[in-house]
Specification:
Mean pLDDT: 83
Family: Belongs to the SWI5/SAE3 family.
Pfam families: Swi5
Protein name: DNA repair protein SWI5 homolog
Structural class: mainly alpha
Strand content: under 5%
Number of domains: 2
Shape: flat
Oligomer: single chain
Keywords: DNA damage, DNA repair
InterPro entries: DNA-repair_Swi5 (IPR010760)
Length: about 110
């Protein structure tokens, strides 16, 4: 007599409807996100876009191109990253020496506004 490898109870569950563990976008609306909130967020983003256009307009009027403005912004981000790294290193050095970072500034010919 041959025995079945799977119990009959499991076979019944194989025919059950598949329920995905990943929720569809439709089900996310039932999680508290409603259409009004999404529309309000879209309007806020549109307003922010208009504000940024107004902020950029004077630079374009002076003859700057968008590419040039983007390059300046990129360079400013790079400068800020380098400055943050320098501040972090000064802080670590100050901690090792047991002094304040303010006391290290003259040793490296830095102004307090740097």
């Amino acid at each position: 007599m041959l025995r079945s490898r799977t119990p009959t109870g499991i076979l019944r569950n194989c025919n059950a409807r598949f329920k995905s563990p990943i929720q569809s976008p439709r089900s996310s609306q039932s999680d508290g996100v409603n259409k009004e909130d999404l529309l309000r967020e879209i309007e806020e983003l549109k307003q922010k876009d208009l504000d940024l256009d107004r902020e950029i307009a004077p630079f374009l009027a002076e003859g700057y191109s968008l590419e040039e403005l983007e390059k300046h912004i990129s360079l400013l981000h790079e400068y800020n990253d380098i400055k943050d790294t320098g501040q972090m290193l000064l802080g670590k050095l100050a901690m090792i020496r047991g002094v304040t970072t303010k006391e290290l500034y003259p040793q490296f010919d830095l102004e307090l506004t740097d």
